[in-house]
Amino acid sequence: MILVTGGAGFIGANFVLDWLAQSDEAIVNLDILTYAGNLENLAALAADERHIFVQGDIGDSALITDLLTRHRPRAIINFAAESHVDRSIHGPEAFIQTNIVGTFRLLEAGRAYWNGLDGKAKQDFRFLHVSTDEVYGSLATGEPAFNEAHRYEPNSPYSASKAASDHLVRAYHHTYGLPTLTSNCSNNYGPYQFPEKLVPLIIVNALAGKPLPVYGDGLQVRDWLYVKDHCGAIRRALEAGTPGETYNIGGWNEKPNIEIVHTICALLDTLRPLTIGPYRSLIAFVTDRPGHDRRYAIDASKVERELGWKPDETFETGIRKTVQWYLDNPAWVGNVQSGAYRTWVEKHYQGR
Ligand code: NAD
User: Fold this and answer.
1) Is 180 within 8 Å of 171 (Cβ atoms)?
2) What are the boundaries of each domain within the chain?
3) Which protein residue's CA is at the shortest distance from atom 29 of ligand 1?
4) Alpha-carbon gap, residue 282 to 52, rounded angstroms
5) For the stretch 298-332, what's the b/e string if a residue is b when 16 or more beta carbons lie within 10 angstroms of its beta carbon?
6) By the 8 A CB rule, do 280 and 214 touch?
7) Ligand 1 midpoint to CA 212 (Å)
8) Atom of ligand 1 nearest to the CA of 59
9) Binding site membership of 313 for ligand 1 (Cβ less than 6 Å)
10) Which NCBIfam families does the record cross-reference, listed alphabetically (predicted)?
C-alpha cells in the first residue's frame, strides 16, 4: 500500500493510473478536489478496489494520522499542491497554506508514523516529495542547465512556496532522519492536464476556434517532459533513490513557448484542419506575466546515471500523443470547460 496525495490532479492521476496498470499494490489517494482535482481522470478506476479515494486536505493532521494508522503504507508520495503560477500571483495565500503548511503537516504525521515502525518496515519507508525546476529561478541564454547543486532562487509565489516545502523536506531528513526523496521536474504535458496550462490551453482553444494567447514575445524557454515519463522517474526514485537525495528530472527538450504553440498548430492542421486557414492565424500575443522567468533547463544526468532512468518519449512523439488524446476525449474537455467535472464525483464515487 502507498499513500498518494493530489492523485486526482494532472500528474497525480497519471501516476495512479500507471501504477495500478503495472502493479497490484493498492493506493490510498488523498485529494481535496480543488478546481484542479478531477475524479473523471480516474474514471477507469471507479470500481477498482485497489484504489481507495479519500477527499481531504494534506493539512488535516488528524485525517493523515488516521489514514496512516489504518492503511500502513510503505510510502507517501506528495503531489498535492496549488500548481499554477498565474493563480499564485493573484492569490498567493492558498499556495502558502497547501504547499508550505500542508507539506509541513504531512511531514509531521509521516514522521510520527515512521517513528512507530520497526525493523524492515521502518528501513524501507519513503516520503517522496514531487517538486519543480522553478525553485531554481531563471537562467540566461547559454548558462548551464540546473543540476541538483544549483542555488534556489524562486521568483513567483508558486515557486517560493514549492522551494519552502523542498527545504522542509530536506530538514526532516537531516534533523529527524526521515527517509525523504525530492524530485524537481520540468514542465509536464500529456493527458488530463487542466486547460489553464500552455499545452492543453492551446489545444482546447484551437479546437474551439478561439485566440491562442502567448505571453510577451513567446521566447520564454522551458524544458518539456511527457507526463508518463515523469511518472516512470518517480517510480524509479521510489524503488532505488537514496534517502535524503534530490533528483532533477527533465526531457532534454528546451523549447521556447512559441515553438510549442507552432508545433501544436501544425499537428492540428494535419489531424483536424480548419476551413478558414492554418491554426497559427489564431495566435494572439498578450501582455507578459509579471516577473516571468526567461529560461529553465534541467540537467537530468544524475537521475539517468544513478537510477538508470531515461524518458521513453521525444518531444515530437509525446506532443503528438497529447494532441491526439485531447481530440479523442471531447467529453472530458467539455466537462472541464462547462464545470460539469465538479459533479462527477457525486455521480460516480458515492459511498467509496
Ligand atoms: P494539479 O494542479 O493538476 O493537481 C494538484 C492536485 O492537488 C489537485 O488534484 C488538487 O485537488 C490537489 N490538492 C490541492 N491542494 C490540496 C490539499 N490541500 N490537500 C489535498 N489535495 C490537494 O498539479 P500537477 O500539475 O498535477 O502537479 C502535481 C505536483 O507536481 C505539484 O506538486 C507540482 O508542483 C509538481 N510539478 C508540476 C509540474 C507540471 O508541469 N505540471 C512540473 C513539475 C512539478
Assistant:
1) no
2) 2-190+225-252+294-311+340-348
3) 79
4) 43
5) bbbebbbeebebebebebeebbbebbebbeeeeeb
6) no
7) 24
8) 18
9) no
10) dTDP_gluc_dehyt
**239 is known as an active-site residue:** no
In terms of residues, how long is the chain? 352
Confidence check on the interface: ipTM exceeds 0.90, yes or no:
yes
Q: Residue 201 CB: number of other CB atoms within 10 A? A: 18
- The model's pTM: 0.97
**Minimum-distance ligand 1 atom for the alpha carbon of 162:** 34
Based on the number of CB atoms within 10 Å of its own CB, is 123 exposed (0-12), middle (13-18) or buried (19 or more)?
A: exposed
pLDDT for position 277: 83
CA distance 8 to 80: 9
Do 300 and 223 touch, CB atoms closer than 8 A? no
CA distance 37 to 21: 21
Judge contact between 294 and 227, C-beta under 8 A: no
pLDDT value at position 276?
83
Residue 77 alpha carbon to ligand 1 centre in Å:
12
Catalytic, 134? Answer yes
Cα 345 to ligand 1 centroid, rounded to whole Å: 18
Q: Does domain 2-190+225-252+294-311+340-348 have CATH number 1.25.40.20?
A: no
Q: How far apart are alpha carbons 240 and 259 in whole angstroms?
A: 35
Question: Residue 7 is which amino acid?
Answer: G
Report yes or no: 129 and 180 within 8 Å, Cβ to Cβ.
yes
Give catalytic status of residue 133 as yes or no: yes
Q: In whole angstroms, give the CA distance from residue 345 to residue 347.
A: 5
Assess contact for 168 and 322: CB atoms under 8 A: no
For residue 61 the three cell numbers come to 493532521
Residue from 39, 344, 4 nearest 192 by CA = 39
